[in-house]
Amino acid sequence: MKFCSQCAGVVSRRVPPGDNLPRWVCDNCGAIHYENPKIVAGCLPRWEGRILLCRRAIEPRYGKWTVPAGFMENGETLAEAAARETLEEAMARVQIDRLYSVISIPYISQVYMLFLGDLLAPEFGPGDESLEVRLFKQGEIPWEDLAFPSVTMALRWYYEDLDSGEFPLHTVDFERRPG
Amino acid sequence: MKFCSQCAGVVSRRVPPGDNLPRWVCDNCGAIHYENPKIVAGCLPRWEGRILLCRRAIEPRYGKWTVPAGFMENGETLAEAAARETLEEAMARVQIDRLYSVISIPYISQVYMLFLGDLLAPEFGPGDESLEVRLFKQGEIPWEDLAFPSVTMALRWYYEDLDSGEFPLHTVDFERRPG
Predict the structure, then answer these.
(1) Which residues from B are below 8 Å from A38, CB to CB?
(2) Among A172, A30, A163, A176, which residue's Cα sits nearest to residue B99?
(3) Residues in B 59-118 with any Cβ partner in A closer than 8 A
(4) pLDDT tops 80 at residue A177
(5) pLDDT of B100 strictly over 80
(6) Share of residues in chain A with pLDDT > 90 (%)
(7) CATH classification at residue A92
(8) Measured distance CA(A74)–CA(A51) in Å, rounded
(9) Looking at CA atoms only, how far is residue B75 from chain A in angstroms?
(10) What is the DSSP secondary-structure string of B146-170?
């Protein structure tokens, strides 16, 4: 950030009066420009014991497999965001079930929130951001080619919970950048 | 938003190529300025069967009672945000327990995420944004003077769950502005 979105004045990084963190503050009009974490909402779509995954057509992790997920938009609920991302990335309609995993990723200022969902029909295909979309049985999950640790973790939780038939919320913090 | 934070050019509201929602786009350099929902993280602090509430010293809902909660900051986890808000607003240190309620509020583009927590000691006081902070027994909760529906709902869930001793995650969407 270099300029104020209100008045086009130059901004500088400083702690506003009464605050305790540095913010972008306009040298001209004094407007304070806060920056906050973003929510990534997604879905683990199920159909007859299989899981729908998408192979990414975009960076980062081009060519790797992931669940449908993306930035939540203003004006929608978490569940709406998860369903919309599933429609956009996997061209699939889902009934959103429970919130299943909440992962704080502070080093990129994101919170990753994944729902369980059920496909309304076995109809899907690659959206603009996917190369390929397919249903995987448990033994077919491409564990070595998953795009993100959050996806690996959610799928591991899912198959563990499948044995007990209970699907409680899982929360974890990714405290440091992997690798 | 009137000006581009990258180049100080004039921005206009339009749908960028490949997108399907209007964004603020710079007429000069083409930068796209996304706006996303904010997370409000908070805590329901417990001490020996009582709940700590804060009376707001700021608008909106000046003078009404609430739980410690506020905007999550970049670089922190959800639980860190909830503990920080409790320290700032109630001058109290808490051990964060489980994530307890997740409320989507699409008409203000916020997601309200509340943890259960336990005071480390019965030490607290009004931070800058509170007029008064005190512990309430169940029969003392000022139901008519709570600041927000999300607080009323979380406290109702809490006392219902207290009977069963189980505290599962509660999720709800506030689809329309109250009143």
Answers:
(1) 36
(2) A172
(3) 71-80, 98-99, 102, 104, 106-107, 109, 111, 113
(4) no
(5) yes
(6) 95
(7) 3.90.79.10
(8) 28
(9) 4
(10) BS-HHHHHHHHHHHHHHHHT----E
Question: Considering the entire predicted model, what is its pTM?
Answer: 0.95
Q: Which two tokens stand for residue B56?
A: 């707001």
Which ipTM score applies to this complex? 0.94
B17 domain residue, yes or no:
yes
B110 lies in some domain:
yes
Please provide the average confidence, as pLDDT, over all residues in chain A: 96
Residues A160 and A86 in one domain: yes
On whether both A74 and A139 belong to a single domain, the answer is yes
| Residue of A35, A169, A170, A172 to mutate, interface with B, max B Cβ within 10 Å | A169
- d(CA B2, nearest CA chain A) in Å: 5
A2 to B6: CB separation less than 8 angstroms, yes or no: yes
pLDDT digits (tens, 9 = 90+) for A97-150: 999 999 999 999 999 999 999 999 999 999 999 999 999 999 999 999 999 999
| Domain CATH for A8 | 2.20.70.10
Q: Are A11 and A74 members of one domain?
A: no
Residue bearing tokens 């951001």:
A129
A130 within 8 A of A53, measured Cβ to Cβ: no
Closest Cβ opposite residue B104 in set A21, A77, A169: A77
Report the chain A residue with the minimal C-alpha distance to residue B100. A169
pLDDT per residue over B27-43, tens digit each? Answer: 999 999 999 999 999 99
**pLDDT confidence bin for A178, thresholds 50/70/90:** low
